Amino acid sequence: MWTQEYNNPNDKPTFMNTLTSCVNKVVKDGYTDNFKVTKEGLLSSSTEKYFKPDQVEVINFYRFEGQSDPADNAIMYVIETNQGQKGILIDAYGPYSDEKVTAFMNEVENINKTRGNKDNNLH
Known about the structure:
Blueprint (H helix, E strand, L loop, with lengths): L18 H10 L4 E6 L2 E4 L5 E2 L4 E9 L9 E8 L4 E7 L6 H23 L2
Parallel strand pairs: 1-6
Antiparallel strand pairs: 1-2, 2-3, 4-5, 5-6
């Protein structure tokens, strides 16, 4: 799903250099919604619907580190919901992260791990 043309096998993907270029790349790939974590759940800015952790799947995530200031660290989650919304959630990374976002995304991760184990047991 995440493909990038390379002239040289040692080249870095150019869309990964900055948060802005990465956002532009995933938006181009159809992840156009902006999500926000609230006490009601994950809020879609385009539909104003809320999603619980079991209704969310993290497709990918990217971490960005500031040159010298830990406050510049960020993480971008690429998300799809069970109702087809595709978008991103951006948070600080590390000591400046939002506790609500961290708790919500940890719950999503735990649910997806459990789902993965159930799927593996079916084979």
